[in-house]
Amino acid sequence: MKGDLFSSEHMVQPASAPGMTVENSKCVRYSVNGEMLARQGAMIAYRGRLQFERKGQGVGGMLKRAVTGEGLPLMAVRGQGEAWFAHEAQNCFIVEVEPGDEFTVNGRNVLCFDASLSYRIATVKGSGIAGGGLFNSAFTGHGRLGLVCEGSPLVIPVSPQYPVYVDTDAIVGWSAGLETSLHRSQSMGSMLRGGSGEAVQLLLQGEGYVVVRPSEATPQKAQQH
C-alpha cells in the first residue's frame, strides 16, 4: 500500500515509553501494564490483552454525581497492551501531577489518567460554571492526566499583582492555591439594557496558572458533556 495515508506522519510507531504519551494532536496513547482509567467511550483502538470495565462510583459517588451534575463517567482499563484515546477530535495534552500538587479541571476536559492519581468532586467558590455547575474535579497524587480541549489552550500565569478574570464558559482548569470568586463586570443598569453578554467572570487570585480554551460552551454543548 502506498500514498500519503501510509506515511510516517500517520503510521503508529512502537511505544517509546510506558504509560501515557501524546500520539498526535488529537489522540493519546497509553501503554498499559496493570490498570489505568479513562473517560467512558473515549477508547478508539487497542491491541494486546486488555479488559474494559465501567468504573463504579459507589452509592456515595452516585449520590454526589446526581446532586452536583459533575462526576466523571469512567472506565477502568486493565491488562497488558496499548490503547488509544480521543474525544470529538479535540486537541490532547498531558499534565504531570506531582506529590503536593492539585489540579482542578472541568470534567468535560478529562480524557484519561494514571491509576496512581485520585480525584474528588471539589466545590468551586462561585456559580454559573457551564457544564460543571458549582463543582469540578480536583486531581492529586503522582502521575499523568490526559486532557482534551477545543482548540489550543491558553495557559495564563496568575500572581497576587495580576489576578485573572476568565469567562465561565471557557475555563478548563487551574492549579492549587488559587482562590476563586465571581466577578460582575456590568452594572445592574447595563444588564437590564441588554449588556455586553459578558456579565460575569470567574476571578482567580493568588499564585499559579489558569488554563482557558479559545471557545465558549454553548448550552447544547454543555448539556452533551
Question: Can you characterise this structure?
Answer:
- The chain is built from three helices and 16 strands.
- The N and C termini lie far apart (39 Å).
- By secondary structure, the chain is mainly beta.
- Strands 1, 2, 3, 4, 5, 7 and 10 form a seven-stranded antiparallel β-sheet that branches. A six-stranded antiparallel β-sheet has the order 8-9-6-13-16-11, with no helix packed on it.
Topology:
Layout: E1 19-24, E2 27-39, E3 43-54, H1 58-68, E4 74-85, E5 91-97, E6 102-105, E7 110-114, E8 117-123, E9 135-141, E10 143-149, E11 154-158, E12 164-167, E13 171-175, E14 179-184, H2 188-192, E15 200-205, E16 208-212, H3 219-224
Antiparallel strand pairs: 1-2, 2-4, 2-7, 3-4, 5-10, 6-9, 6-13, 7-10, 8-9, 11-16, 12-15, 13-16, 14-15
Helix content: under 10%
Shape: globular
Determine the structural class based on helices, strands and strand pairing. Answer: mainly beta
SSE string? EEEHEEEEEEEEEEEHEEH
Tell me the number of strands: 16
The chain-level mean pLDDT equals 80
Q: Low-confidence spans: pLDDT under 50, at least 5 residues? A: 187-197
**Major sheet characteristics:** 7 strands, antiparallel
Instruction: Compute the number of helices.
Output: 3
Radius of gyration over alpha carbons? 19 Å
Strand content: over 45%
Determine the N-to-C terminus distance. 39 Å
